[in-house]
Every structure is written in structure tokens, then in C-alpha cells.
């Protein structure tokens, strides 16, 4: 990693005797990025140090640790962002994946042992998003159901554009399974694609348009205006600074914050914000998302962890 030479603080941490795991991008992963992006971060020691620290955790984590559930996430060495680990594939063909600030990478070579931990060679540089909100939904294994629902009547296509910024509080697959257990008929109606208007209305409730809210922003506000309705932000007074969202007495926890994309941010939540009445046929249809929103200047490409 030639980039290490531009971050002496990270190099010192890497050479320390502390237990650690390094997720090292291949040279090809770095060459995939726009040259101007690499050139910019090389001139900013703080930015490149934070970028590289995102690829390091101060714990030795192997594929077996992830496979058997000992570690599914761990805070990176930047002390701000967590890495999220999964094992994909079957018993004979397993692949370790890691997600950092919205970029998911696969290990092309895993479990390289070192005296102070593990090295995993990965196929992407973490922390430099390359997908839109829509494409991130499509590729994320924890958001499969939300993605499938977003395809109804083309609702998710607006999340592909770069002319707006988005904040999407996306229910995890576990959240949808909880809904299925508690409201099996409602879940069946939503997923059978027969009521796209109602599905879109529920997804609208989880979406903010023309405003990108990272967790640091949520910590400073008490309420969020969604496309459909409002969420209250509840700040829990305990170590870790966990944030809850509340809508009509129902609360959801942000289980995976700050999944950065090129046109917004996703926060994965553990509950679907809806009630049975959402599937009634009364009420006038909500207008398409593309109507009524102010346009903004498209944001230029930036490294998510700079700020």
C-alpha cells in the first residue's frame, strides 16, 4: 500500500505490537478510483490517515470468528466508524466481506497470519463510496427485502439520481421478518406487489430528500421531516450515544449508521415504521417523489470520512 507512506501516524500504528487486523486493498482496487480523488487525499495527511485507519481494527479477526458469530462488527482504528463483517457462499466456497462507510469489499485472500494478528487482502478501498443509494440497497445482503419492495412501481429509481441528496432509514431484513411474525397478512400483502401505492407510502415515511443526515447531525436535532410524516430522534444518555427513532409511539434503533453512498446516506434500522392502517385503501394517493422537491447543486465526488 503506497498510500501508507503519506500517513506516518498510521504507519507507526501498523508497526506497533498491538493485536490487530488489516484489511489491505489490492493495487487494482486503488487504480479503480478516479486519479483526482487519490491525488486530493495524498495532500491531506489527516484525511489519508483516517482513510487508512478505516482499514484497521485493533483485534485479530479471522474468517472463523465471523462465521461462528464471534464478531459481526468492530470499530475501526479511526474510532468513529465500524466495520461490518459477513461470510457469503457455501461451506466449500466461503468469502469474507467487509463493509466500511458504505463500501463493501470481498477478501480475495483471507486469514494471512501475522505475529500480531491477521491480514485480509480486499478488492476495494473502503470509505470511498462508488454506489448510489439504490445500488447500495441492491447489493447489501442485510437490505434485500427493502430493495425488493423499492422496485415496486419504480419507487427506488429516484434513489439512483445525483441531482438530490438522500437520507434513508432502511429497515433491515430482520426488521421485515419481525413484521412478518407480528403482521403476517400485512407482510404478505406488501411483498405480493399488489398494493404498490401503500408500499411506496411506507417507504416514503423512511426517506428524507434534499438533506443528508449523518449520525453526527442526528445527535444535534430532535425531529426529522420525512417525505411522509415526521420522526422524533431520541438521544439515550449512556456510553455509546445510541440513537432511537420514534414514530407514533413505535421506536426503531439505528443498528448500522452512516452507510455512505455517492448521493446520500443510509442508516439501517431494526423496525419497520408502519401500522396496519397503512394498508387501508382510503385516502388520496401521495404524489410522486419527483414532484415538489427543490433541486440542489449535485455534490461533487468526495471521500466520506474526510468530515
Order of helices and strands: HEHHHEHEEEEEHHEHHHEHEEEEE
Number of domains: 2
* Structure annotation, total helices: 11
User: How many strands in all?
Assistant: 14
Average pLDDT for all residues:
88
The secondary-structure class comes to alpha+beta
Amino-to-carboxy terminus distance: 23 Å
Radius of gyration: 20 Å
Overall geometry:
globular
CATH architecture of the largest domain: Roll
Strand order of the largest sheet: 2-1-7-6-5-4-3
**Helix content estimate:** 25-40%
The name of the CATH superfamily of the largest domain reads FAS1 domain
CATH class of the largest domain: Mainly Beta
Please report which band the strand proportion falls in: under 5%, 5-15%, 15-25%, 25-35%, 35-45% or over 45%: 25-35%
The largest sheet is: 7 strands, mixed
Q: Which runs of at least 5 residues are low in confidence (pLDDT < 50)? A: 283-307
CATH-defined topology of the largest domain: FAS1 domain
Note down, in words, how this protein is organized.
α8 (173-182) packs across α9. The chain has two domains: 2-122, FAS1 domain; 133-275, FAS1 domain (Roll). It has helices spanning 8-14, 27-31, 35-42, 45-53, 63-67, 133-139, 144-150, 173-182, 184-191, 196-204, 215-218, and strands at residues 20-25, 56-57, 73-75, 82-90, 93-100, 103-114, 117-122, 166-171, 207-209, 223-225, 230-235, 243-247, 250-261, 264-269. The chain has 307 residues and is an alpha+beta fold.
